[in-house]
Amino acid sequence: MYLVKNIFLISCLLTSLQSSDESNETKSTVFFNFDKQLFISQEDGKLDISDFLSTKYGFIPMPIIVTEPAVGYGGGLNLMFLHDSLASSVQRKSPPSISGVVGAGTENGTLFGAAYHLGFWKEDTIRTASAVGAMDLNMNFYLRNLGVDMNLKGYAAYQEVMFRIGESDFFLGGNYLYVDMESKRNDGALPILDRFFERELKMGALSAVAQYDTRDTIFTPSEGLFAKATLRRFDENFGGNENFWRYGAKAFYFHPLFDNVTLGLRLEGEAVNASDGDDVPYVTYPFINMRGIQAMRYQGEKMMLGEVQVRWEFIERWNMVFFGGTGKVFGDEYRFKLGEGAVKESISFQDAPSHAAGGVGFRYELARKFGLWAGLDFATNEENDFAFYITVGSAWGAY
């Protein structure tokens, strides 16, 4: 689930630019030794961190700002270690491997911490992702329009390996996910719901993954196609106590309409399925994940969404972003029925209501050499809820 949005708070940059009378001598801060010219474009003299990213390797601290409405505002820190500089990775057409630790907290008491490693091996013919983390999450889950305030506490581990097919843009691979959490309600109202929400959640899953990627950059693409399909099996034989399938596919397409206008199209679908006698835990039901809609607000057995985005460079290095989309959840979904608690109800795709959201935003070209733009998005939905998101790179994610 996408609960955290990252942004570079270039404190070292602000320090170096606070006085125009200072010389170009090397500065020293807690984290970096750098020349302030690394943050100025040689092309137009404007703010640009391309040269800094090209020369820097080792530890880089990335402050985190959380703006997800489901958990409230918050912040944290991501301490990354680049095993090589981005410049050398561009020359060999392979991103640098990255290790790190991250921690964050929000105003509603949510806490999260993890250690991770992203590996790119043998000229980017093999990609790996490893992570282990713990969480203490407070957020609402919904039975149709009834919000239930939940606490999820536990840990998770993840390992993925992907192999490039020859010299093509196709990758095939798989991953393993293990989750061990305790699910409890934060309030004592409606105790009839306890049998549905109060439970131990232990899940082990193996997945097969296929991926295709022709984007010009993973950060803020201007052209190309990214498509990914995942088939995941949760099973007692894989270390959990639940047996069911979860599968999904997504595609992001980017195309320049004019020199300064880029069109983006997004299509995603997910579903879960269990055999007779098996149960799908409520936390694993697909949900509409779109700017302007609170995470987990609309969940169901199946989910489909589509979103359109237009990015317009109205001034050099500055973009306006216009976006909007709609999604549906259908199939079996849970609702609250007086005297029975949480019960399943089936709804067809045709009869399921559409949930729309959209908004506007802006971007600044933060690192031209790497196609990295950053900025803010402001979004609303059919219920006139308002949310804003700090966006670094693509709002739809890189993978």
Question: What does this protein look like?
Answer:
This protein has 399 residues and is mostly beta strands. The chain has one domain (5-392): Porin (Beta Barrel). Helix content is 6%, strand content 56%. The protein has helices at 11-17, 50-55, 86-91, 194-197; strands at residues 5-6, 27-28, 33-34, 58-66, 74-82, 98-106, 111-121, 126-143, 146-164, 170-185, 199-213, 224-234, 244-258, 261-273, 302-315, 318-337, 341-347, 355-367, 372-381, 386-392. The strands form 2 sheets. The chain has an 18-stranded antiparallel sheet that branches. β16 and β17 (341-347) form a beta hairpin. The model is unreliable at 1-32 (pLDDT under 50).
Features of the shown structure:
mainly beta, 6% helix, disordered N terminus, globular, 18-stranded antiparallel sheet, 399 residues
Shape: globular
- Predict the CATH topology: Porin
Order of helices and strands: EHEEHEEHEEEEEHEEEEEEEEEE
CATH homologous superfamily identity: membrane protein fhac: a member of the omp85/tpsb transporter family
Structural class: mainly beta
**Sequence stretches where pLDDT stays below 50 over 5 or more residues:** 1-32
Strand content: over 45%
User: What's the CATH C level?
Assistant: Mainly Beta
Going by CATH, the architecture would be Beta Barrel
Helix percentage: under 10%
N- and C-termini, Cα separation: 13 Å
Overall pLDDT score: 86
- Main sheet summary: 18 strands, antiparallel
Q: How many distinct helices? A: 4
Q: What is the number of independent domains?
A: 1
User: What's the β-strand tally?
Assistant: 20
Radius of gyration over alpha carbons?
Answer: 22 Å
